Amino acid sequence: DAKENGRNRRSFFEANMEDHVQSKDKLSRELRMALKNDELTLAYQPQSDTAAQRIVSVEALARWTKEDGTVVSPAQFIPVAEETGLINELGLWVLNKACAKAHDWPDVVMSVNVSPNQFKHPRFVEKVMAILATNNLAPQRLEIEVTESVFAGRNDTVLKSLRRLKNLGIKVALDDFGSGYSSLSYLRRFPFDTLKVDRDFLSDMDGNPEAEAIIVSIIQLGKALGMTIVAEGIETIEQIRFLQAHGCHRMQGYFISQPLNETDLAKFLEDFKKEHGGDFGREFAFK
Ligand code: C2E
Ligand code: MG
Ligand code: MG
Ligand code: MG
């Protein structure tokens, strides 16, 4: 009867909850070991200037392949690291590795993602300074990406840390703009160097006048505020043409390149220079 069904449904739900908690627990334990055993790596995704067609920056993205070959996506393990506090250790590992590698590619800025809990660590800025010093990297070579969620809750210390980073000469980017609880007041309260337009707008773009209007306004708004605008998730030549026509400064996405390992990135940077270098102003030359 109905009551019986209700009870079954509840126990089914509870069992699932337990599974969920257990797998998260397990993932977190495995992640801790992975960090210790050096099983994490970084992939680097190139970001191109729209007009000049040169690679101006690369975004470091964490990668984890388990011993048995299973790939765990950062969309899965970063939230777990955030919840368990492991994000501080993980994030410092990423920063350190990215800053060390930055010397291999002197022409590009190294962008690193920082999660809210990592960013809110009381000694975060000091740790970044220490990592730059250890790796002898100029602060201008580093960009820190935060998302709007870093502003949730009390955020006076967040603003203070953002200012400190900027005063040190580190670039600061607002990532995934427009995807969360966007508020334009963040843009007024802190002068981000870079605004990354969330790839949802770009995937919605094709022939959709609303999505196109939003992209165009974000570009204009960002420009009026003196920011560098980056469009994320570029997958088609039509998107590139659109962004070039509307003066978007930079773009990142599979059409330009997937995230690459160190060896492939070195090769990509060289090839890209050969194909596009010095071709300033030539339109639509991406192929
Ligand atoms: P994100 O910072 O917005 O990074 C961009 C994500 O979009 C990357 O996914 C990238 O592979 C993907 N992407 C780039 N171009 C395209 C495209 O043309 N089409 C599509 N469909 N996707 C594209 P990934 O590497 O899986 O990372 C997902 C998210 O995980 C990142 O989003 C970032 O929020 C987080 N993440 C990755 N590495 C780190 C890290 O080291 N620290 C922290 N705190 N977060 C990280
Ligand atoms: Mg990012
Ligand atoms: Mg993003
Ligand atoms: Mg994203």
UniProtKB/TrEMBL annotation:
Domain of life from the UniProt record: Bacteria
Domain (EAL) ranges: 24-273
Name of this chain's protein: Diguanylate cyclase (GGDEF) domain protein
Species whose genome carries this gene: Roseibium alexandrii (strain DSM 17067 / NCIMB 14079 / DFL-11) (Labrenzia alexandrii)
First-to-last residue of the parent protein present: 467 to 753 of 759
